């Protein structure tokens, strides 16, 4: 059984997190551990017709963001990595600074210190120099920076197609097999 931690921050794009949880739920041999920030709870209500409970029912284990005693806050709790989807610049900055005041940030920091895969689906545009330096620092520390940029070669026909492409690319980074999007093939 593979353990994947999923963090959902308050950035716009909570549908990415929901789609990732659905894909991980259908993947064989994957156990998901979910943490949703308070800001994400607000964003979910503003952007979707979903409830936070809809996200939580897709996860195997759910933690409160203020529970710094949770298992995922410790490097001794073995995981195969973490996906923060979407990842706000606030969360990215806190992870980069190891400002472990919340469980989402602490779990991400644990992945970095333990040399586990950390994939950040950073949802911000445009990016100023401070953002870019933060992201560069995270990449230097070992995080994978994966902004949700659609591939037009996949010829997306809906928002769901665009979301599926990003989620598929993120799961690729975690080694989770998926067929969520049309992969490039030579013409």
Strand element count: 6
Helix content: 40-55%
* Largest sheet: number of strands, sense, barrel closure: 6 strands, parallel
List the secondary-structure elements in sequence, H or E: EHEHHEEHHEHEH
Structural class: alpha/beta
Count every helix, treating DSSP H or I runs of 4 or more residues as helices. Answer: 7
The dominant shape is globular
For the termini, the CA-CA separation is 38 Å
Unreliable sequence segments? none
Walk me through this protein's architecture.
The chain is of the alpha/beta class. The model has no long low-confidence stretch (mean pLDDT 97). Helix content is 40%, strand content 17%. Strands 3-2-1-4-5-6 form a six-stranded parallel sheet, sandwiched between helices.
List the helices and strands and how they pair.
Layout lengths: L1 E7 L5 H13 L3 E7 L1 H10 L4 H5 L4 E4 L17 E6 L1 H8 L6 H11 L4 E5 L6 H13 L2 E2 L13 H15 L14
Parallel strand pairs: 1-2, 1-4, 2-3, 4-5, 5-6
Helix pairs in contact: 1-7, 4-5, 4-6
């Amino acid at each position: 059984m593979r353990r994947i931690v999923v963090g959902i921050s308050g950035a716009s794009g909570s549908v990415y997190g929901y789609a990732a949880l659905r894909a991980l739920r259908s993947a064989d041999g994957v156990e998901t551990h979910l943490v949703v920030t308070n800001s994400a709870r607000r964003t979910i209500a503003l952007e979707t017709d979903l409830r936070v409970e809809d996200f939580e029912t897709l996860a195997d284990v759910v933690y409160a963001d203020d529970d710094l005693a949770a298992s995922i806050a410790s490097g001794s709790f073995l995981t195969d990595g973490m996906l923060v989807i979407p990842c706000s610049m606030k969360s990215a900055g806190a992870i980069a600074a190891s400002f472990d005041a919340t469980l989402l940030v602490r779990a991400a920091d644990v992945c970095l210190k333990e040399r586990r895969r950390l994939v950040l689906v950073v949802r911000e545009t445009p990016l100023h120099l401070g953002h870019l330096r933060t992201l560069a620092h995270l990449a230097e520390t070992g995080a994978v920076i994966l902004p949700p940029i659609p591939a037009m070669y996949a010829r997306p026909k809906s928002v769901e197609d665009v979301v599926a492409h990003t989620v598929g690319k993120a799961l690729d980074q975690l080694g989770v097999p998926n067929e969520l999007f049309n992969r490039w093939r030579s013409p």
